Amino acid sequence: MMAAPDSLQGAPLRIGVVGLGRLGKRHAQNLAYRVRGATLAAVCSPLDEELAWARGALPAPREYRDYAALLDDRDVDAVWLVTPSALHAQQIVDALRAGKHVFCEKPLSLDLAECERVLGEAQRQPHLQATIGFMRRFDPSYRDAYDKIHAGLIGRPFMVRSQTCDQNDPDGFFVRFAPSSGGIFLDCTVHDIDVARWLLGKPKAKRVYAAGTVALHDGLREFGDVDNGVAICEFENGGLAMFYASRTMAHGNDTGSEVIGTAGAMAIGRNPRVNRVEIADRHGIRNECTPTFFDRFEDAFLHEAQAFVAAVKQGPGGEQGGATLADALEATRIGSALRRSLETGQAVTL
Amino acid sequence: MMAAPDSLQGAPLRIGVVGLGRLGKRHAQNLAYRVRGATLAAVCSPLDEELAWARGALPAPREYRDYAALLDDRDVDAVWLVTPSALHAQQIVDALRAGKHVFCEKPLSLDLAECERVLGEAQRQPHLQATIGFMRRFDPSYRDAYDKIHAGLIGRPFMVRSQTCDQNDPDGFFVRFAPSSGGIFLDCTVHDIDVARWLLGKPKAKRVYAAGTVALHDGLREFGDVDNGVAICEFENGGLAMFYASRTMAHGNDTGSEVIGTAGAMAIGRNPRVNRVEIADRHGIRNECTPTFFDRFEDAFLHEAQAFVAAVKQGPGGEQGGATLADALEATRIGSALRRSLETGQAVTL
Amino acid sequence: MMAAPDSLQGAPLRIGVVGLGRLGKRHAQNLAYRVRGATLAAVCSPLDEELAWARGALPAPREYRDYAALLDDRDVDAVWLVTPSALHAQQIVDALRAGKHVFCEKPLSLDLAECERVLGEAQRQPHLQATIGFMRRFDPSYRDAYDKIHAGLIGRPFMVRSQTCDQNDPDGFFVRFAPSSGGIFLDCTVHDIDVARWLLGKPKAKRVYAAGTVALHDGLREFGDVDNGVAICEFENGGLAMFYASRTMAHGNDTGSEVIGTAGAMAIGRNPRVNRVEIADRHGIRNECTPTFFDRFEDAFLHEAQAFVAAVKQGPGGEQGGATLADALEATRIGSALRRSLETGQAVTL
Amino acid sequence: MMAAPDSLQGAPLRIGVVGLGRLGKRHAQNLAYRVRGATLAAVCSPLDEELAWARGALPAPREYRDYAALLDDRDVDAVWLVTPSALHAQQIVDALRAGKHVFCEKPLSLDLAECERVLGEAQRQPHLQATIGFMRRFDPSYRDAYDKIHAGLIGRPFMVRSQTCDQNDPDGFFVRFAPSSGGIFLDCTVHDIDVARWLLGKPKAKRVYAAGTVALHDGLREFGDVDNGVAICEFENGGLAMFYASRTMAHGNDTGSEVIGTAGAMAIGRNPRVNRVEIADRHGIRNECTPTFFDRFEDAFLHEAQAFVAAVKQGPGGEQGGATLADALEATRIGSALRRSLETGQAVTL
Fold first, then answer.
1. For chain B, which domains are there?
2. Chain C residues with CB inside 8 Å of B288's CB?
3. Exposure string for C250-265, b = 16+ CB within 10 A, e = fewer
4. Among partner residues A2, A263, A279, which is closest to C57 by beta-carbon distance?
5. What share of chain D in percent tops pLDDT 70?
6. Chain A residues within 8 A of B154 when measuring between CB atoms
């Protein structure tokens, strides 16, 4: 945090955050207080309590209940979508048509045609930044691994093992969410898919296979979903990936990745330590674990916001690092194929 | 090592070791000096230098160059086969017909019909012990995990992740061995298959999928083999397994497993530490790793020999813990299906 | 970061940062952008380049070259001293006399009489907050350990082992700094002294012993200083502490503590991992380490600023958690005794 | 375990084990079954049950109830003393006078004059091997660290931190043992003293300081002993050591050391993992710990026996690695000084 680079000088980027749920609140506070070169100009939510929260916790942004009204605000340069997944695609299209840069939480859409429709619109607005929030790319440990790989530390990377494992929620929120989540692979594994492609040089997938089991949450069966899923993905460049997603971990959110190369390997987050404390007692020696992805990726959400602002200020062609719409489409494409493989018991060729 | 239990009292089990390569030497020394209730009565090898070694390092066992002659020795109760894989099946059959108990290194056979032929012979000799050497079951850490699972520590185990990863051998011995090894899944992953079935309650497999890549050893391509392979195995009881096998690790032999249950998980050998030393220098803090499976499983080979002797002394129906011929057949069955899946790019239903 | 608690509502605390070196810059940025309920109202530095930096990186605070002028600014409620150690005592006294709350980086003073003079002044201004910056108390891991101890997790804590070990600086800055640093125990170990007292219930010391060696930096000898020092401290309540301070670590800043109780123990920062990456290559498996205390305690500096502001807003008698002037005096008292013990080779009774 | 080296050829060393308590049993079994070049020729114990155990568990050694009778046995080349500490010195003298090599468990004697008397006798019998059982030198991890230090991996080693921490025994056996144990430093820390000297080049101590506390076992107070003791030892060569001994650990036997050098450091046994299993459950991620030194140093006891036999076969001047009588005397000298420092609260100059 030295003097801001030139690219962050000049008028701040005026951002409107749309959706103020738990994650929306975090994004809003980061943008309001911790992202140089940005101003939180507006918030948008249909819920009274969320707007009331904004009044107390944020530096007086303009308030909107209606997304269209926000888009009409000429003093908003970019929108930050933290809304239900089913709204993402159309909201991105609307924002681009209104001439605004867009950051949107993942997923772009569970529907490939929708994804492509958004890409089409974005191609007509090449001067606008559109980024999907795969925040792991901005976690300092993932970033360090990425940089070391690019410096050649492990030779040629040819395989990624990656997992998204949530602590078991006995209330089973995600069971109620199952009808619209797209299933475990589109809801969780998309992150691992993006990580694998990012670390392996953005290859396209050629074939996938998936399997799964219901360990604890029988309610998932009626939706054809599982609470533990595994998958293999083969890429066109010869790269391989193995994925694991779980909703039933006992010890916490255990989310991490491993990259294997011809001269070494790196593991990111192998033990999801919550901090630097080790406890020694009659049970042995232990560390506690990060309870949720929200705790695990606290820094990543901030850095992703800082990177987005820097990317807008650099303009088209800049090196920003976030997931593009094309990356998000590929993640959906692979995630959908995993779901189909789970349903059919057959490998799916893309 | 307190006073020997009753079952180890009485006349010692007289064992003949067949094959005195590196692993045969270790077995012979364990049986000669470290297994209570057993005597190393004979050795058999066609090679002068191996017999010469035996004369210097072992307590004067009888020497044979010919396996048939060893089987004729009435003062040998059991044979210990550490011979080339292609000989295993017939040598086991011959031993059983000669009325001798048999311990045989894995694999039983790469050919399913051969496996079944051996099982048929063993069923005709139910008073004889026949064990295949899946030594991981006797590693103290695997054994501890097994016991804890059976005590309910992690609830119902439903998934195993297991890997056999060798340090890269630039000389590529295994490339020359490829024509007869059966490929990476039958050569390496059989261990993981056996571990997964053992930890999940010995289920039968219903479907498998495999993929692989050649990272370093192009010479494997002509045999349809890979130097890094991944696989998914679904079991009839709903259990899942993921496997990884590699010939190209930079850091050592990294062989371990993870068992995931409804109330917890256990990892065995996650960091393959060679000992208890940690080094702190300008590269950070590090531990060195076990170079080969031979070092990693030194204790397991001993305990497996002790368990075999105890099992013979307990007689049929005893609880001995080693892999049965039926276990070995199932490992070959699954390993063969993985190979077929690798070749075809399709899931294989068993 | 939910809605601000009541205590942080109302007019912001207006703070003036004095000294804009590396650490001063960090404090200024934290106060400017990341501490709710505070405003960075002014900065003070005699150096052009530091003031120039402030103009670019901070939100337009008033600028002063002269400390007295800052104290005259009626719109400054608190001063934040990040100045050379020799100035601390008088600057605190001046601030208190000017009616301003004070945060001051450690040490309070290397001179016990000076420490007591400051305490005397503070007692005359009981409505003003005066805190010394022992930031480890605000590191999330130290804080977690503290809370767990208070919840009884390890029974009665009776011993602390604590260390401050810097990566070797071949340039030997600290050798040139030796004449005024007070030596390794007053410069480094004061942190460990404060940690030990904080975790053991703020006992007074009754006897100390220290020893040391010069491993690499012979230039220290002329000042009677060492680059590696060890010490034992016995407290009046029966508690024990062992300290280690080093200037010559090869692997990074390795700063941590261990608390031992009658029912368990806790280690804080045993392996100073820089992040969540593990590298596996021909050297084994390793993690990189935090290079400096500045990296290691980044979060702690922020939380300490937040706690100070909260403490001022709560008013006298609040539970703020930072080190009081009395704590700082006791740290100096013990540190001075350690130095004397090092010089004499005798235990020193306090 | 390849062919035995020449030095182990020839007639086996005929050993008589004296004392068959828990540790004596282990030594006897190692010597009987696992040490090449040695024969367990005789055992000596005044207790019926120990001799009965020997009959069942050992290969028919000659039995003696009386030490003098064993010394008269001309077919015993060496005695292996696992007897009460108070007997060690005289038993060693008697053995040497009887022309027998001696291995004796630590300590040589708690009395310095006694130690010197034994050394005097040994100097009159330079052709006889006399070794004191500081087994840590033979633990594979300690040995690896020693070798790496000698290869220069950490530059010049200048400091050792070492600890002997036993799991708390609620029965307080060691309290009843306190009158004769010599106190925590002579009973436990002697091991750390020997380790420190061994790793730092066998320096002599010049000054020590010790302190301690009674955390749980009040019964120790009447003997002037403590259940947690800390100490600093300064060596003539500028080396430093810090020691910690505890009887009250909750998590197991936590015995290890750290060596710090000018170019790096090594930790041996920092986390006393009992095996390679990690458990992940609602308490976090943990490993269990070695319960006792007996489990922790199982390998070391074996290797120490092998080294003793090799040393005898090499003859005087050989490089054997075990602690000499002079090493043991120095350990007693330092341990006694630590006890005196604990009693007086003063540093003790040697």
1. 6-135+301-323 (3.40.50.720), 137-297+330-349 (3.30.360.10)
2. 283-284
3. bbbbbbbbbbbbbbbb
4. A2
5. 96
6. 250
